[in-house]
Design goal:
Elements lengths: L2 H39 L3 H10 L5 H26 L7 H14 L9 H6 L7 H34 L9 H18 L1 H8 L5 H8 L7 H28 L6 H17 L7 H13 L6 H29 L3
Length: 327
C-alpha cells in the first residue's frame, strides 16, 4: 500500500468515526428531548397523585421489588447475549451487560428496536461483527419466541373467557396455538442445520460471513439460551404484575397469567418504535387487564411504569456507555 492510499484509508476511517460520533450525540440529544417531552405532556399526573395519596405504605414494597428485578432482568439478557457471542468471541458478563445497555440506547429510535444490534456489535472485534449482526437478530428472536410461547395460549384462553367459551368442547383455537408454537420452536432448533445448508448454496460466499456462526451451535446450546429467555420473560411479567399491585390494581394471579402475556404478545407483534411503545403498552394493558379490573388509570400507569423501569432507565445508562465507546 503506497503512502497516498494509506492516507486515503486513514482519512476515510477518521471521517467515519467523526460521523458516528456526531450521530451518537444527535441520538443522545433527541432521546433525552423526547423523554423530557413525554414528561411535560404527560396528562395523568392528577390520577398519579390521587394514587399516591390513597396508597398505603405497604404497597411501596411492590415498587421496591420491581426495581430490584431490573438488574436481574438485565443480567439475564447479558447472560443470554454472552452465550451467543461466546461462539465467536469470549466476553465477560460485564462487557455483555455494557453491550446490551448500549443496544437499548441505539435501538430506542428504530422500528421494533432493530437498531439494538448497532450498540451490541460495537463490543465485538471488527472482523467478527458480521457474525455479531446475525447473533443479535437471533438473540432478539429468542425473546420474541419466549413471548409467543407464553402469549399464544394465554390470548386463546383470554378470548375464550371473554366469549364464555372456557367450558365448551371447542378446542381448535388452542390446538392451532400449540401447533404454531411447535413450528416456531422447531425452526429455532433447526437454525444450525439451515445454516449448514446455506453454506452449500451458490450464495455461500456472500452470506457465509453472516450465517456460518450459527452452524456451531448445538441443541443443548440453543436449549439453554431459550430457557434463559423464558426465565427473563417470567421476570419481566412479574415486574408488570408487581407494578399493578403497587398502583392498587386488584388482579388475581391467574388473571395476570392470562392478561399480561396476551398484552405482551400483541406488543411484540405490533410494529413500533421503542419510544412509542409507552402508548402502545398502556393501550394494550387497558384492553386486556380491564376485563378483570375496572381501574383503568392504574392499569394505564402500570403499562407506562413497566416501560419506564425496563427501557427508559437502561436507555439512560446505555447512552453514557454508547457515547464513550470508540468504534
Amino acid at each position: 500500500m503506497d503512502q497516498t492510499t494509506q492516507l486515503s484509508s486513514e482519512w476515510k476511517k477518521s471521517s467515519l468515526k467523526n460521523w458516528v460520533n456526531v450521530l451518537k450525540w444527535l441520538i443522545l440529544i433527541v432521546s433525552y428531548s423526547y423523554l423530557a417531552y413525554k414528561l411535560i405532556t404527560f396528562d395523568q399526573y392528577d390520577e398519579l397523585a390521587a394514587h399516591w395519596k390513597q396508597m398505603p405504605a405497604s404497597q411501596l414494597w411492590w415498587l421496591v421489588v420491581t426495581l430490584i428485578l431490573l438488574p436481574v432482568n438485565l443480567l439475564l439478557e447479558a447472560l443470554k447475549w454472552k452465550l451467543f457471542v461466546s461462539k465467536i468471541q469470549k466476553i465477560d458478563i460485564f462487557t455483555s451487560l455494557k453491550s446490551i445497555l448500549s443496544g437499548i440506547y441505539t435501538g430506542f429510535f428504530t422500528p421494533n428496536r432493530v437498531g439494538e444490534l448497532v450498540g451490541r456489535v460495537a463490543f465485538i472485534d471488527a472482523e467478527k461483527r458480521k457474525s455479531g449482526v446475525t447473533l443479535s437478530i437471533v438473540n432478539s428472536l429468542t425473546q420474541n419466541l419466549a413471548t409467543i410461547v407464553c402469549g399464544l395460549p394465554a390470548i386463546v384462553i383470554f378470548w375464550r373467557y371473554k366469549n364464555n367459551l372456557l367450558n365448551t368442547e371447542n378446542t381448535h383455537y388452542l390446538e392451532y396455538a400449540v401447533l404454531s408454537m411447535l413450528f416456531l420452536v422447531t425452526l429455532y432448533f433447526a437454525l444450525p442445520i439451515i445454516s449448514g445448508k446455506l453454506d452449500r448454496t451458490k450464495f455461500s460466499t456472500r452470506i457465509s460471513a453472516f450465517t456460518a456462526c450459527l452452524s456451531v451451535f448445538r441443541f443443548s446450546d440453543l436449549l439453554l439460551i431459550l430457557v434463559v429467555a423464558l426465565i427473563r420473560y417470567i421476570v419481566y411479567a412479574m415486574q408488570f404484575y408487581f407494578i399493578l399491585l403497587f398502583l392498587g390494581v386488584q388482579l388475581l394471579p391467574w388473571e395476570a397469567a392470562v392478561s399480561i402475556p396476551s398484552s405482551y404478545l400483541l406488543i411484540t407483534l405490533t410494529p413500533s418504535f421503542s419510544f412509542s411503545e409507552v402508548a402502545i403498552r398502556g393501550s394494550y394493558a387497558v384492553f386486556f387487564i380491564n376485563s378483570f379490573s375496572p381501574d383503568v388509570a392504574g392499569i394505564a400507569l402500570a403499562g407506562i411504569g413497566v416501560w419506564f423501569v425496563n427501557y427508559a432507565i437502561p436507555m439512560m445508562a446505555g447512552s453514557v456507555i454508547a457515547t464513550k465507546k470508540q468504534v
